Amino acid sequence: MLANGLEGDMHPGQHRFIAHGCPVNQCSLTGKPEDAATADLILFNGHISRPAFARPAHQIWALFMLESPFHTQSLFEFDGQVSRIL
After folding, report:
1. Whole-prediction pTM value?
2. pLDDT given for residue 62 in this prediction
3. In total, how many domains does the chain have?
4. 5 within some domain
5. Is residue 54 part of a domain?
6. Whole-number pLDDT of residue 13
7. Handedness of CA 56, 2, 82, 50 (dihedral sign)
8. Residue 7 belongs to some domain of the structure
9. How far apart are the first and last CA of the chain?
C-alpha cells in the first residue's frame, strides 16, 4: 500500500508489476487506507506522518526519499517502526 496514495500513471492492482516483468507477480498496488490492515508493506514516499492505523506485527513500513539526511524530518517518533530507509 502506498501511504500517500497512487500517483500519476499508477493504477491499483498488478498491472505495474506485470508491465515491468517483475518476477514477483503476486504483488498488488493500492492507495486505499482501508487496505492498510492487510497490506504486507506500507510505502511512505517523500515524508512520513503518523498514519491513522496501527501497524500489525508482520507489516513492513518503508520510507523512500531522495532528500539528503540533512534536510530530512526527524524520524525519532517512528523509532523501531520504520523497517528500512531506502
Report:
1. 0.71
2. 84
3. 1
4. no
5. yes
6. 92
7. negative
8. no
9. 16
Sign (positive or negative) of CA dihedral 44, 29, 6, 52? negative
Residue with cell 524520524: 75
- Amino acid type, 77: E
Mean pLDDT by 10 residues, the chain (86 residues): 86 88 85 90 78 80 77 62 48
**Helices marked H in the chain:** 15-19
Q: Give Cα 16 distance to the centre of its chain.
A: 15
Distance CA 11, CA 67 (A): 26
User: How far is CA 9 from each of CA 15, 49, 55, rounded to the nearest angstrom?
Assistant: 11, 24, 28
Q: What is the DSSP letter of 79?
A: T
Count Cα neighbours of 1 within 13 Å in the Cβ-side half-sphere: 18
**pLDDT at site 85:** 45
